[in-house]
Every structure is written in C-alpha cells, then in structure tokens.
Amino acid sequence: MSENPSFADLGAPRQIVDVLAERGITEPFPIQAAVLADALAGRDILGRAPTGSGKTLAFGIPLVARMAKGQRRRPTALVLSPTRELAEQISEELSPLARAMGHRVVSVYGGVGYNPQRKGLDGGASLVVACPGRLEDLLEMGALTLEDVESVVVDEADRMADMGFLPAVRRIVGATAPNRHIQLFSATLEGPVAKLTRDFQNDPARHEVGSTEPDMTLAQHLFWEMDRTDRVADVAQFIDTAGSTIVFTRTRHGADRLTRQLSKFGIEAAPIHGGRSQSQRNRALKAFSDGKVGALVATDVAARGIHVDDVGAVVHFDPPEDAATYVHRSGRTARAGASGVVLSAVLPGTEKDIRKMQKSLGLPVGFTTPDIASVPRAERKRDRTGASQKGDSQKGTNQNAGRQHAKRPKQARHDSAPVSESRSESGSELTGTVVHYSRRKGFGFIKVKGRKDLFVHDTAVAGGVDAAKVLTKGNQVAFVLGKGRKGPIASQVRSLSPLG
What pLDDT, in 10s, does the model give residues 119-169? Predict the structure, then answer.
C-alpha cells in the first residue's frame, strides 16, 4: 500500500470512491486512513478524534459499504447522535454515499413532527440517523424495530454521557442484533465511555488521532475591555471585519436581544437556542453556512449541535462559565488546519475571573482596549455570479478549503444613501462621538447626547478628508443634521480632533 493511501487503497467500494471524487474528496484525513481498513473488515472500532477531523466519513464509509438492504420499518444500520443538528448533518453527508449503494437514509430527532419520519421508516430506509429520545418514542409506537440492525455507530459518546443519554443508548444498542458491529467515537475514551465499550464491543480496534482538546494556539485570542454601553458596537465592528462569526450569549433572551441589536449596526445575524423550533434552528444554521447571515448568536446548550466548517471567528459576548466552556466555544473556529480569531468581551467586574481562566489555559494574561486593526480582515472569494463561494472542510487533495465568510450584510435600516448639504435640517452644528464605522460598508453611527445614535455615510464627511480617519471609533466630530429616507442623519461631518 502507498505511503498516502487513497480511499480505494483502503477498501472503499468504487461507487463510494466515485461519489467522493465528485465532491473533490480524494485523500483521506488521518482518522479515515486509520479506521477504514479495520472497519471495512468488520472489526469493532473505538475511535478518538477531535471535531472537524473527518470522523463522519471515517465511520460512514464502512457503515454504508457493509449494511444490507432495509425493509419496511426494519433498518439494518443505525447512527446515534447527541443533537438534532448533528444528526441532520450526518444524514446529509452520508445520503449521497448511501444512494450510490442503493440505500435510503432517514434522520430521526425531536422538535419536528413524527409523520415524515414514520413515512421514511415505512419506505424501507436502510440507515437511521437518530437522537436517542425520539428513537425510543418511535420504538414504543411500533414505528420500527431494531432487530435487523447489524451495524451501529455511537457518535460523540462523551457528549451523550454529559447530556444524560447513556442509559437510553444502552437500551437502544441492546435492542439491535446480537452479532452487531459497533463503531464508537468520542473526544475522550475514559469513564462512562470506557464502560460502554467494555459492555458492548468485542475486542475493538482502537484508533486515536489528534489532541483531546482543540489546539488553542491555532486561533488568535483577543480580550478587549468594554463598557456595557459600547459592547454591541464593538462586537458589530469586530464581526464586520472578521467575517463569519459565532457569538455566544448566556441566555436565550440575550441571544434574541443581541440579534436585534446587531441588525441596527448593519450586521445580519440569526439566533439559535433551545427556545426556537427545529425548523427555525435549521434555517439559522443554513443561512449561516450559506453566508446569508454574518453571525450566528447561540447559547451554550444549543451550541453543542453546531458543526459548521470555516467559521472565521468566535465571540464570547457573555463570559464562559469556566475554562472548559471557553475551550468548547472557541473550538468552533480554527478547525481542520484553518486559522481563526476568538474575542472575549471583558466587562467591569469580570477581570479577576478571566485572568484566572487565562492562566489555566496557558494564554497570555491581560486585556487591551478594542483595536480593530488587530483583527485579521476576512478574505471573501467570489464566483462569477458575485456570490460567496462556500468552503468545504474536506475538498481537493489537501481537503482544506479557504475559510467561508458571510456575504456582505444589508446596510442598517436608518439610511444608506449619501446626503447633500442642501437637505440639511438646520445650519447649526451638533457634536458627538463616533461609536461605530465600517469602512467596508461605508457607514457608521454617531452618539449624540439626548438623541438616538445617528446614521452617517462616509460621503457625508466634509472637505474630501478620508472618512476612515474622521469616523474612527471614539473620535469627536461636529456635523449638521440631514434628512435621510427614514429620519435624521449626520451630514457635513468634520473632526474636532487632529487627524493623524
């Protein structure tokens, strides 16, 4: 076998190899190269690999290659997932492989109606990708039996344990065929996961790839001291510069509120949390993956199911509960060899806890003032139609596509058109402070005492001066009021401070 074996070298069927090639996937990731030969030979697998390492294909290729044709309500293969979003993503990734081998796939999870899932089971799906709770509901209804299931995958078993699903996993696996082939994947292989493998696996081939934790050195970590009143504006400017960003909040209400607040600064965002329906969560993930929104605003619980490739940045809008949560959140960027940026909003009163966390994680201790120049600017690749090209974590021979970034968000609702001096409401000047400016989009906002923040377009800067210098955040400016299509805006703007 060659030093860098292909999928065909490792024993994958030609139909599957061809489908992978059509997707630009030609060279296995390390976990795939390690697992495939043993799994295709029928050995139980105990695998440890970090998120984003390609483990879905590592277990999916042998699963699809080996499974028999399913009958009505009698699947022959099963993948158990801890979250709805992950179950759907596994189903989407494996469905093309299954079709090539003459099989059908159905995903089963809560938050949606039973009928479509029962219809899929009635249609003779060979592979079921399921969350434990909904699967047990369907089993109790008699919607399926697991007696013919001879291939089982337990994905992210450590999360199953954290979320209290292992008793259900044990019941489900116990209901499958006695001669079942089990692949178990987890970020850690100790504790409850070790007991699960002892009880259900037969002399598994053990394969471990990568660190047990995300490599924190792959991302740039920024800790900005912010006032609560400026936090949204600072984060909006960061997102505008960094590109596709997942923003973490502590509560569902906070996620919804922040989504609305970001829109006022021209950042299109979508919330995702347990209070939203499954269809809403699916639409939010798709909009973010497709680049239709620049930010996904998530709670920690909902974030357990977020698996999106090529995330440019992560923002801790609310501080993480502990160092482990910081690592889990931050691991959403800088994956599969890509770079990324992690920003923490350091609010008054949180400095002591954050310094302690920095020390425990081996990060430089200390904070800085917001500095947008320290944030790598997102690179946006365009196709012939002008749309953002979607990256793929496993594409081409190196399987590392460029980072995916959000399409240009719609401008703020206030007004985006240049305003001429003849439209000013009054000749008398007002003064204010620039609180946000996006050079890429050409607009910003000025804070004025006793008024709502005023929209300002870069063409409103007087005297032909570089707008980026005049509209620098924190700069004191003078201006007159102009009439925008949706209310007053700033016009004839000049700096009250010397320009560098």
Answer: 999 999 999 999 999 999 999 999 999 999 999 999 989 888 877 899 999
Give the torsion sign (CA, 144, 149, 151, 157). positive
The residues, ordered by sequence, that sit 6+ positions from 6 with a Cβ below 8 Å of its Cβ are 17, 26, 27, 28
Q: What is the phi/psi pair of residue 350, to 5°?
A: -105, 0
Q: pTM to 2 decimals?
A: 0.58
Mean per-residue pLDDT over the chain, rounded: 84
Cα torsion angle, 275, 280, 284, 286, sign: positive
Query: What is the C-alpha to C-alpha distance for residues 246 and 375, in angstroms, rounded to an integer?
Result: 15
Whether the predicted pLDDT of 272 surpasses 60: yes
